[in-house]
Specification:
The protein has 392 residues and is mainly alpha-helical. It has helices at 6-31, 57-73, 78-94, 119-136, 139-155, 177-188, 195-212, 235-238, 242-259, 262-279, 308-325, 328-344, 377-391; strands spanning 43-44, 50-52, 55-56, 105-106, 112-114, 174-175, 214-215, 220-221, 224-225, 239-240, 291-292, 306-307, 356-357, 363-365. The chain is 55% helix and 8% strand. A three-stranded antiparallel sheet has the order 3-4-5. Strands 12-13-14 form a three-stranded antiparallel sheet. The protein has a two-stranded antiparallel sheet with strand order 1-2.
C-alpha cells in the first residue's frame, strides 16, 4: 500500500470539520437548550423535536464538556462557552445530592428521578467542570471537578455502593469501564491534581486496562473479570464490547504519547486491530455491539446492532494508530470504517447522526438523542478525526 496522498488527507479533514461545524453543533444549539428551566433536552427526534423532557446527568455533563472543550481547544467562540455554562448552571443547582454524588436523572425542572447509582454521572461532571475551569478560571468549577474526582477514587472498588443489585460475594466481578475512563479523565483534569496522584492513577489504569482485563491466550479485552483478574465463565464474564475496548486503546495511545512510550503505543495499536477484526461483521459489515467470548448466545438482545459511538471511536483509534505508528493496516481499516460510518450514520437532511442500526445497517431508531445518546461521541469523534488529519 502506498501512503494516502496529502490531497486525500486534506479532503477528509475538511469533511470531518465541516460536518462538525455545519451539521452537528448547530443541531444541538438550535434544538436542545431548555430556556425555561435550564440545562439541555437530549431526547430529540430526527428533526430535533423534543419527545421527552427528562434530563440525564451524564448527558447534561457531556454536552457542557463538549462545548467548553471546543472553546478551549478549537476556537474561542463565546456562543459555545455560554452554551456550556448554561448546562453547568443547571448541573450545579440540581445535579447532585448533599454529599456531592451526582444523580442519574432528573425531571425537566431538576427534581431527582433516579438515585446516584451510576458513577459515570460523576465522571462526566468532573470532565465538564474541569474544562469549564480551564475556560473561565472560576475557582468554584475547579473545586467541583477536584472533589468529584476524589469521590470517584473513593468509590472505585464498589462504584454503585448501596445501589448495587448483585448479591455480595457469590460471583464478584469488576468492570472494564471505570479504569478505562479514568485513563482519559486523569488527563482531562491533570492541571488541577497533585502530580503524585496523577502518576499513580495513570499507572494503575494502564496496568488494569493493558494487563488485568487483557486475555493473553486470545488477545482479546474482557469487559468483566473476577477481582483477582481471572476469567469468569458466566454471561458477564464472557461479554466482549469491541467499541469499549477500541475506545480505551486510543486513550492508552494518548498516555503513551504523553510518556513518550512507543512500545505502549504499539501494543495499543495491535490490540485495536485485534478487537476490530474480531468484532467486524463479515456478512453485513459494521462492528457488532456485543459478542460472547466463547461464541455462545450473548445475554444482550441488541448484540448485533451497529451503534454510532462504536464506529466513531474506532475511526479515532485507527487514525491515531496510523499517525503514531504508520501501520498500514490502520489506514486500510480506517478507509473501510469511514465508508461504512458515513454512508449509514450521518444525516445530511436534518443534521447530527443516527445512533442505532440493525445488523443489516438499516436505521432502527431515527432519534438523534435519548437516554443514552447525547451531544458527545459525534462531536468529539469528528473533532478528534479532523485534528489528526490536519496534523497528518
Amino acid at each position: 500500500m502506498t501512503q494516502p496522498s496529502s490531497k486525500t488527507i486534506q479532503k477528509l479533514a475538511n469533511q470531518y470539520k465541516n460536518e462538525l461545524l455545519q451539521n452537528v453543533l448547530p443541531f444541538w444549539i438550535n434544538h436542545s437548550k431548555d430556556t425555561e428551566f435550564g440545562g439541555y433536552f437530549t431526547c430529540l427526534l430526527r428533526d430535533g423535536k423534543i419527545f421527552d423532557t427528562d434530563k440525564f446527568i451524564w448527558l447534561q455533563a457531556r454536552q457542557a464538556w463538549t462545548f467548553s472543550m471546543l472553546y478551549n481547544r478549537f476556537e474561542k467562540k463565546e456562543e459555545w462557552l455560554d452554551f456550556a455554562i448554561h448546562g453547568a448552571d443547571f448541573l450545579q443547582k440540581y445535579g447532585h445530592d448533599e454529599h456531592g454524588n451526582w444523580y442519574f436523572s432528573l425531571n425537566q425542572k431538576g427534581q431527582p428521578l433516579i438515585q446516584p447509582y451510576n458513577i459515570f454521572s460523576d465522571c462526566f461532571a468532573t470532565m465538564a467542570f474541569g474544562q469549564l475551569y480551564e475556560a473561565t478560571q472560576k475557582e468554584e468549577y475547579a473545586q467541583i471537578a477536584i472533589s468529584t474526582f476524589q469521590n470517584i477514587l473513593k468509590k472505585q472498588s464498589n462504584p454503585k455502593g448501596i445501589y448495587n443489585k448483585s448479591y455480595p460475594n457469590t460471583r464478584p466481578l469488576k468492570n472494564f469501564a471505570l479504569p478505562m475512563i479514568l485513563c482519559n479523565l486523569c488527563l482531562e483534569i491533570e492541571p488541577l491534581l497533585d502530580k503524585k496522584l496523577v502518576k499513580e492513577t495513570i499507572s494503575n489504569c494502564i496496568h488494569e486496562v493493558m494487563k488485568v482485563f487483557y486475555h493473553e491466550e486470545s488477545g482479546l479485552i474482557l469487559e468483566n473479570i473476577t477481582p483477582n483478574g481471572q476469567f469468569s465463565n458466566s454471561f458477564e464474564g464472557r461479554l466482549l464490547n469491541p467499541g469499549h475496548a477500541i475506545e480505551a486503546m486510543w486513550f492508552i495511545m494518548d498516555l503513551g504519547q504523553r510518556a513518550n512510550d512507543q512500545n505502549l503505543i504499539q501494543i495499543a495499536v495491535e490490540r485495536t486491530l485485534k478487537m476490530l477484526e474480531f468484532g467486524w461483521d463479515e456478512k453485513q459489515e459494521g462492528i457488532f455491539y456485543f459478542l460472547d467470548f466463547k461464541g455462545t448466545p450473548p445475554q444482550q438482545l441488541e448484540w448485533d446492532q451497529k451503534l454510532w459511538w462504536v464506529h466513531l471511536e474506532t475511526l479515532v483509534a485507527l487514525l491515531k494508530g496510523f499517525q503514531l505508528t504508520k501501520n498500514e493496516k490502520c489506514w486500510q481499516w480506517f478507509e473501510r470504517i469511514h465508508e461504512y460510518t458515513w454512508s449509514h450514520f450521518s444525516d445530511p437532511k436534518y443534521g447530527e447522526w443516527f445512533g442505532y442500526l440493525n445488523r443489516q445497517g438499516e436505521v432502527l431508531l431515527d432519534l438523534k438523542g435519548g437516554k443514552w445518546k447525547g451531544c458527545f461521541h459525534v462531536p468529539r469523534g469528528l473533532f478528534q478525526c479532523f485534528k489528526i488529519l490536519e496534523e497528518l
